Amino acid sequence: MILDLFGMLRDVLPIILVILFFQYAVLRRPLASPVKVGVGFALVIIGLYAFVVGLKLGLFPIGQRMAEQLITFDTWLWVYLFAFAIGFATTMAEPALIAVGQQAEEAAAGKIQGNAIRLLVAVGVAIGITIGVHRIISGDSIHHYIIGGYLLVIVLTALAPRYIVALAFDLGGVTTSEVTVPLVTALGIGLAGQIEGRSVLIDGFGLIAFASIFPIVTVMSYAILMERVAHWREKRP
User: Fold this and answer.
1) Model confidence, pTM
2) In this structure, how many other beta carbons lie within 10 angstroms of the beta carbon of residue 184?
3) Which residues cross the membrane (predicted)?
4) Residue 205 — left, alpha, or beta (φ > 0 → left; ψ -120 to 50 → alpha)?
5) How far is the C-alpha of 100 from the C-alpha of 91, rounded, in Å?
6) Residue 87's closest CA among 180, 186, 207, 209?
7) What does the pLDDT look like over 51-88, one tens digit per residue?
8) What angle do CA 109, 97, 48 make, to 5 degrees?
9) Do the Cβ atoms of 124 and 214 come closer than 8 Å?
């Protein structure tokens, strides 16, 4: 545990050095509140340390154990339902997604609602992880799924309103953050490790890619649909 704390300090140290270098060597101004900044960095290090320890003790083991137990049922339905539910629930809890949703709502001047964005992204992640789990179960090549997913994204990018495209791609990235990644990764590894003929390295990973692609699809699809509905209402007599 102590080694994890020192490792976290080592990882955060370059960030601290960069900030201090630019503050004192480039800007040549002292920190406005050195004590607050120091306490803030200390809390970041402690928080990251607690998070890493929590992953090792709780999230990784429970994700793998649930995957191992779910495949003992006679049907794969429960595995699919768990994949969908865990994808939706973890995404709704992502701090980065909450922050981006709030910023998008403020910047869009009424065109976008933060809660709607969170729901759309959560549904996209849930669909993506479910499809990724199906790939692990079926043993299909990941190449076909990823190529097909990004071809769909390219088509939607050409059709979607301009204001939503950049946001949709950003949302595809922020979904794979500290809450979603540990459980989803553990789920993939757990499934691949328990299904005969699957490789943990080849088949156990890749779920995060699906979790990044399909939020882009759901957000842009929703924007296209809403634009069509708005045009239809304008043309009504």
Assistant:
1) 0.80
2) 27
3) 12-27, 39-57, 77-98, 119-137, 143-160, 204-225
4) beta
5) 13
6) 180
7) 777 777 777 777 777 777 887 787 888 889 989 998 89
8) 140
9) yes
